[in-house]
Specification:
Length: 699
């Protein structure tokens, strides 16, 4: 009462009625009080004056909380969590000291746990997850079912988008495979699904709009597949990914793949074998499988021995996987069963068995050589003795397709032309004699997983074909790699020299090396070098700069850049990809000053030509980005080292290299900056010097 005595009667009435005014205003906003315009204006003006008067004289702070308003009744429900006072372990606790380091799950509620009192006085917190967090919004689900009901089907058939909506649909069609559609975009694509059946790019976007738990939507989506125009191979590969489990959709994708010839199918075979992990198999009956993809691959593999050779070895590697090995063994069983039903089937089966025995023998030889405590010369002598040993049957083999390249039939190993590389794993350099009197040199590695190198070479081969389709031959060297097991495999040997050795022998002058093998002092020569050789060097430099950048190839030093006498420059040893690199601050691509000087320097017209090749290759591969991204998406569950580290980010790492958010002109300017950054990078030069000294002391 002492406080009330200090204010006037008018002030007291203002304080007394202000709460009542707030209630009346709330009723007015909710429509419970009939509005009278002229009286409302006077009333609200007076209320505002009272509020301003109180605010100017009061020393108290006010907190205004505005609660959400709904046009329909809302029923709230609370869930009570039982607290077991007898057991302190009833709630998972997080130490208070680690709260700043650990992120709580989205939608979780943290409460102090009074039972967690230790001698230090620290408190723990129990994390309670919201059970409604992952539930569908019932209103939105009901709205979606009404919009997509069968009753709207006949009306949607004749819908045509206006120019604005057509532009929105075209924008959606350009999205990369990894981009998710918003709810509004999904509804828009669904609404104009019949109109979009004429656009081959739209099918994958439409199928992403389908709620596969709703039988009505699934039935409508499957019925539309037969009306859709034929899609491209890259979209068919996307439909075989983990995201699409519906059998009708996967069968449709396989039907589209049937149009590809064997050469194209061989480019995607590695990923198609990985896609078998997403198929549906009958685990109860080992003789039965319900997979159109399995049947398709077996049919094509039995018809084409070359395709069948690689299919067999891809299966054999996966059969050793502890998780999916049984499934792949089941596919291999059906494949061998199908081989026996074709002409010369028994001979083909025996050939595959003999290949397996050859690989097993080479693996044993490699392990024995590596276990010897002798100098390298003694080991080479021992290797040649083992090859010439009549009991080993290596110098004289029955005519056999080489697993690495089944188009080559080998009949033995030439001991005098075989040796051992000077590296930690001591791989074997073997020269096979072919039936047509040719020789085929290979590298056999044991103790090394070649599946990552195999993937990179496959992508390089694909990119080379895509560039050649645009009449751009960058003189790439996609040598063959075949993993015959998780820890051994074959690599084609290309006669060449490491760029580090070339620079060391020719005083840091690549031109001197090329001039030594292909001199041309005539008017057509370039710096005294055959013009074709110099052109090959420039093109191959450009091609591998672009490709190694896109794949994020790391650990690039001058020992794993090789140069052949005819000017082909190429990369080997892809132990680090997708941006991983054991060295700090790696450049976007390996482009040292010696490589630029071989073209005549940064001011020469040949360097400008090199840059133009880079820009053309980059923009061409950007236009085929969806195909490359879908191939990587099918590999996310593979055992490839750099994909297993972050499988959910592997595709995004490749996608960000393409810079699909830029226009073609902006992308060219961006790549021009990457070239300048790589040429002028100082830290890689320091690392290269350190690497050179390390190699020197190792020798």
């Amino acid at each position: 009462m002492e406080k009330l005595e200090k204010v006037s009667i008018n002030d007291f009435s203002d304080i007394f009625y202000v709460d009542a005014f707030k209630k009346f205003v709330k009723w007015y906003d909710c429509g419970d009080i009939q509005p009278v315009e002229w009286l409302d204006n006077l009333t609200f003006r007076q209320i505002e004056q009272i509020h301003q008067k109180l605010s100017s004289t009061s020393t108290n702070l006010s907190l205004y909380v505005e609660l959400p308003k709904f046009d329909f009744p809302v029923v709230y429900g609370d869930i009570e969590y039982a607290w077991d006072e007898n057991e302190s372990t009833a709630f998972p606790t997080i130490p208070a000291a680690s709260l700043g380091q650990q992120q709580q799950p989205a939608g979780s509620i943290s409460h102090m746990n009074p039972m967690n009192n230790d001698s230090t006085g620290s408190r723990g917190y129990s994390v309670i997850l919201d059970p409604d967090l992952l539930r569908d919004n019932l209103v939105e689900a009901k709205h979606r079912r009404l919009v997509r009901s069968h009753r709207n089907g006949p009306l949607d058939r004749d819908l045509k988008p206006n120019p604005k909506i057509r532009d929105e649909l075209n924008t959606i069609m350009t999205y990369p495979p990894t981009q998710s559609l918003t709810t509004e975009e999904k509804d828009l694509v669904w609404k104009f699904r019949f109109y979009l059946t004429r656009d081959k790019r739209a099918l994958t976007k439409f199928l992403k709009c389908v709620v596969w738990l709703d039988p009505t939507e699934v039935r409508q989506a499957v019925d539309l597949l037969s009306l859709w125009t034929d899609i491209d191979v890259d979209d068919a590969l996307e439909l075989l990914g983990k995201e699409f489990e519906n059998r009708a959709v996967r069968s449709y994708a396989v039907d589209q793949l049937r149009k590809a010839d064997d050469d194209d199918l061989l480019l995607y075979l590695l990923q198609l074998v990985q896609a078998l992990k997403f198929e549906h198999f009958n685990e109860k009956d080992p003789n039965d499988y319900d997979s159109s993809l399995v049947q398709f691959l077996i049919d094509r593999a039995t018809r084409n021995p070359v395709l069948g050779n690689y299919f067999h070895w891809y299966l054999m590697v996966e059969c050793e996987d502890k998780v999916v090995g049984k499934m792949y063994a089941k596919v291999a069983y059906h494949y061998f069963k199908a081989i026996l039903e074709v002409p010369n089937g028994h001979q083909r089966r025996d050939t595959l068995r003999q290949q397996g025995e050859l690989i097993q023998t080479l693996s044993q030889v490699c392990k024995e050589i590596r276990a010897l405590k002798e100098v390298r010369a003694k080991k080479v002598e021992k290797l040649r003795t083992m090859i010439n040993d009549p009991k080993g049957n290596l110098s004289s083999l029955p005519e056999l397709p080489l697993p690495l390249d089944p188009t080559k039939k080998v009949c033995g190993i030439v001991a005098e032309k075989s040796g051992i590389f000077n590296s930690n794993l001591q791989p074997l350099r073997l020269t096979f004699s072919c039936a047509n009197d040719d020789e085929y040199p290979v590298i056999f590695k044991s103790g090394d997983d070649l599946r990552q190198d195999q993937l990179v070479i496959q992508i390089i081969t694909l990119m080379d074909k895509l560039l050649r389709k645009e009449n751009l031959d960058l003189k790439l060297t996609p040598y063959k790699v075949l993993a015959t097991g998780p820890e051994h495999g074959l690599v084609q040997f290309i006669p060449s020299k490491p760029l580090a050795a070339v620079l060391d022998e020719h005083q840091n002058n690549v031109q001197s090396y090329l001039r030594l093998h292909h001199p041309d002092t005539g008017p057509n020569g370039i710096y005294g070098i055959d013009s074709q050789v110099m052109e090959t060097y420039i093109r191959s430099c450009a091609g591998y700069c672009v490709i190694t950048y896109l794949l994020g190839v790391g650990d690039r030093h001058l020992d794993n850049l090789l140069l052949s006498p005819n000017g082909h420059l190429f990369h080997v040893d892809f132990g680090f990809i997708l941006g991983r690199d054991p060295k700090p601050f790696p450049p976007p691509m390996k482009l040292c000053k010696e490589m630029i000087e071989a073209m005549g320097g940064a001011e020469s017209p040949h360097y400008n030509k090199f840059q133009q090749y880079c820009y053309t290759a980059f923009t061409t591969l950007r236009r085929n980005a969806n195909l490359i991204l879908n191939l990587f998406a099918l590999m996310v569950d593979s055992s490839i080292i750099d994909i297993k580290i972050e499988p959910d980010k592997a595709v995004f790492k490749v996608q960000e290299k393409f810079r699909l958010d830029l226009s073609e002109e902006a992308a060219i300017a961006y790549f021009q900056g990457l070239i300048s950054e790589s040429v002028n990078a100082l830290f890689p030069q320091i690392i290269e010097t350190v690497h050179k000294w390390a190699q020197y002391w190792r020798k």
